[in-house]
Amino acid sequence: MDPRKRMEVLAAELLRHQHLYYVLARPEISDAEYDRRLDELVQLEERYPQYAGPNSPSRRVGSDLDGSFPERPHAVPVLSLDKLYEAREAAQWLRKTAAACGNDPGFTVEEKIDGASIVLYYERGELQHALTRGNGLAGSDVSDNVRTIRQVPLRIAEAGSLAVRGEIYITRDDFARFNAGLPEKYANPRNLAAGSLRNLKSSLTARVPLNIFVYEGFFPMGENSGRDHLEVLARLRDLGFRINPRLGFFCDSEPRRRKAQELFPGAVSAPLAGVEDYLLRLGTARAGVAYDVDGLVLKLADLEMRQELGFTAHHPRWAMAYKFEAPQARSELLDVLVQVGRNGRVTPVALLRPVRLSGSTVTRATLHNQDTIDMLELGIGDQVAISKRGDVIPAVDEVLEKSEANPSVYRLPERCPFCASRLVRDGAHHFCRNGSCPERQRRALSYFCAREQMDIESLGEKTIAFLYGKGWLRTIPDIYCFDYARLEGEEGFKERKIARIRAGVEKSREQPFARVLAALGFEGLAAAVAAALIAHGFDDVDKIIAGAARGDWEAFAAVEGIGEVTARQLVDHFTAAANLELIARLRDAGLRFRAEGPSAERIDDSFAGQVWVITGSFESFNPRSLAADEIRRRGGRVAENVTARTTHLLAGASPGSKLAKAEKLKVQVISESGFLERLQSGKQSNNGG
Ligand SMILES: [Zn+2]
Question: From ligand 1's centre to the CA of 588, what distance in Å?
Answer without folding.
Answer: 29
